[in-house]
# Entry
Amino acid sequence: MAQVRHPMRQRVVKDRNTIRFSNSDRGIRAAVSFLRKSGLVAFPTETVYGLGADARDERAVAGIYRAKGRPAYNPLIVHTADAQAGIRLIDLPDAGVKAAEMFWPGPLTLVAPVRMDSGIAEVCRAGAPTLAVRVPAHPLARALLQAFSGPLAAPSANMSGHVSPTTADHVMEELTGRIDGVLDGGSCDVGLESTILGFDPDGTPRLLRPGGVPVEILEAALGTIRSGIVTEDAAPTAPGQLSSHYAPGAVVRLNADKPAAGEAWLGFGAGPEIYPTVALNLSASGDLGEAAKNLFACLRQLDEWMDGSGTIAIAPIPCTGLGQAINDRLRRAAAPRS
Ligand code: TXA
Ligand code: MG
# Structure
């Protein structure tokens, strides 16, 4: 497979023996013992695999940035075992407490001013006064957090700017030699990262990233959600929301009605009359949940078949429900690369 072009990749040293931990008490104990020694262990969540480190340990968290080639200005999400532990880390307005009570555990991240006594290493926030917190619903993530009995900082377990991993194999393909291990929990159910909500000074929620909880569902529960997704490259005030992100090596062409000669095809619902040899369907029945779950694995597979070059043409996806997050990730995958 051709090298996927990533400038940070060259600078990362492969100096670790990466272990695959099984989905068992023994696997969890082994993962915890590495985390207690400032190690880096990837684990499954219901959204995507996260690359975990002790969120109270400056050195461990610095290792996450190094392993991923992640820019130092891009802060991390801290994961806790339950909503009470999560709520204690940040000063949430009323709507935030309500969101935590209704949607945790689940694919929702809340961003609010960090509490002075949170004990979270500053490097997790990358200089921001706010902290992003999430309580994952995946049973193995919860078992790991409980056994570790502390907060875990965890960005998606991929090289910075690349497509998020939804299986332990994806993690191994990209991070072998750079991390201590991956806890193998099979494939992720949701398949897209969490929805991120921040709060304006008046306490009104603001959508920072569409994701696993559709915004319509949040609005029905919380009332108005302002929208504030920033997609410009030079926008460190909205860290991580870079326009080119979640990017495969191949060029991506969106809202295509059919593939042009030589293009690979990623369909949704009923396909075009003629399929190219290199083709996959996100959901033949047009189900957005199924499409979300398949999205990143399909992009990886097509990219591999295309040897990280050429063009992937992608069928239009409706922009409702999970379709909003799918289209957000596809736009980033299609954005010009820096
Ligand atoms: O589903 C998910 O959210 C997964 C799983 C592993 O939990 N995590 C994930 O992490 O997607 P990551 O690092 O790939 O994306 C987190 C996003 C980044 O865009 C980051 O900039 C943003 O959250 N973020 C983190 N802290 C923030 C803060 N204080 N203010 C604004 N954005 C923040
Ligand atoms: Mg990520």
